[in-house]
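mind reviewing this fold:
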Amino acid sequence: MKVDGSVFISARKKIRARCPGRGEPGRPAPGTQEWVADEAKLSLRAVQYLENGEASLKTIKAVSKLLGIPKWEEHICDYGCEYVTCSAKKLVDFRPELYPPHNPERFFKSTMLMSIDPLSILVEAGKFEEVLLKEVTATLSGLDMDIEFQWLAEVLLTPEGKGWLGWVKEMEEFYIPANNQILHIPVMFRQLNAPQATWEAFVHMVEVATTSQLDIDIHLHFANFQRHVKIYLSTDLLQRVFAEGRNKYQSAWPYRAQLRTIT
């Protein structure tokens, strides 16, 4: 199986740095590949393959125990991928960064933000205790330009939310317990494009779009694998929501748009 060999090299070299010397015949110096092979009762070739990114589960466990590497599962590529399920089956929210009523002359020039409300993650129990979610990225396609996103914050886009952006906390990598319980996280994304698309530019691209749907590809980057969620939006429906928003607020630009996702 594929493995991150650099983790094992680093752990071995730390031992080597603490125990310099050439060793003796039949007694390899601590921290060398030969020493690892002898102590873990493996062939030298097995250790070399491990450090090059390929190893059996037996080799990974034996060397991890010897070198004191915790959570060795996280270093196996795709380990546990089949036990993690992700979905986004409710809402997509688009809005400008600035609150329109307080910034009527500027809000449409501010950056467009996208939220998935919520992103749902289920980790089945039994295989391991937890998984590390390092990052979530997304791509919105179907317009004149693709828009790239990266997670920004957990949000609460309801009347109970704090402020226009409903900010709860900034998103950072975190562990999700493997307990068969679905974790629902409303996630707001920031754009990675340079320059970023303004609210005005985004609304205009949607309103002149000729494609029937927009696609949002969401990639969840776990410690040693990725999961992918694809959702679709009706272009016609989004255009109608924008038109209704203009009429509702008597504004040249709609304030926001919120649609049900299609998965």
